[in-house]
Amino acid sequence: MPSSTVHLLRHGEVYNPAGVLYGRLPDFHLSELGRQMADCLAEHFARRAHDGARIVLLAASPLIRAQETAAPTAAALGLEVGTEPRIIEAENHFEGLKVTPRELLKPKHWPYILNPLRPSWGEPYEAQAARVLAAARDAARTAYERGGEGSEAILVAHQLPIWAARLKAEGRPLAHDPRKRECTLTSLTSLTIDTSTGSVVSLRYTEPAARLLPGAATTPGA
After folding, report:
1. What DSSP assignment string belongs to the chain?
2. Which numeric CATH code is attached to 3-92+124-212?
3. Left, alpha or beta for 206 (phi > 0: left; psi -120 to 50: alpha)?
4. Cβ neighbours of 128 (radius 10 Å)
5. Local confidence pLDDT in tens for the 222 residues of the chain
């Protein structure tokens, strides 16, 4: 079975003193802690490459926080950062707002909160999972072409699309409680993909920057 591993890397902490749901808004850069997280991931991948891992592809969402997270790893591995639009953050009606119970009680929002299973406030979970898994399959095939069996790729993305892709790959329902996502800042959701069929044959979750998580932002989807 020809296979490659694709690491879905969530970006680092973002500077967001107002606590808004920034979604796809521009100019939300990494915080100082976020930059430390990005450096930590670069060190993690550099160690793996030193130990023999063949990491041959690196791409990120178009959003600045993902591009900034990818930059230290690109420098450490000598790779260029490609831009992969299919792994961008999910669309969300509440983008730019601080989502509080008081805000949700405003009548203008009611049509958007009728169906949390889809969800009605943004891009459907199915659509998110489909685009991220399609990008991962293409990255796996490209990595295999460049590096052969066991080669690896890194895609820097966002919490909700990564989580939707994981749920889909594991055959679990896509509707979920956002507070229970296992996808912390700069965590890795690593998919080993059969490049001949595109199927996910194994999945592993790790937190290389776990020591930096205490005190970091915990807004779901941020």
Report:
1. --EEEEEEEEP--B--TT----TT-S---B-HHHHHHHHHHHHHHHHHHHTT--EEEEEE-SSHHHHHHHHHHHHHHT---EE-GGGSPPPBTTTTS---HHHHTSGGGGGGSS-TTTTTTBS-HHHHHHHHHHHHHHHHHHHHHHH-TT-EEEEEE-HHHHHHHHHHHTT--S---GGG----TT-EEEEEEETTT--EEEEEEE-TTGGG-TTS---TT-
2. 3.40.50.1240
3. beta
4. 27
5. 899 999 999 999 999 999 999 999 999 999 999 999 999 999 999 999 999 999 999 999 999 999 999 999 999 999 999 999 999 999 999 999 998 999 989 999 999 999 999 999 999 999 999 999 999 999 999 999 999 999 999 999 999 999 999 999 999 999 999 989 999 999 999 999 999 999 999 999 999 999 999 999 877 655
Q: Can you spell out the DSSP letters for 126-178?
A: HHHHHHHHHHHHHHHHHHHHHH-TT-EEEEEE-HHHHHHHHHHHTT--S---G
Domain borders along the chain are 3-92+124-212
Q: Supply 216's token pair.
A: 């970091």
Does residue 71 contact residue 38 with C-beta atoms inside 8 Å?
Answer: yes
Q: How many CB atoms lie within 10 A of CB 126?
A: 12
User: What distances in angstroms separate CA 53 from CA 142, 157, 194, 196, one per listed residue?
Assistant: 16, 21, 18, 21
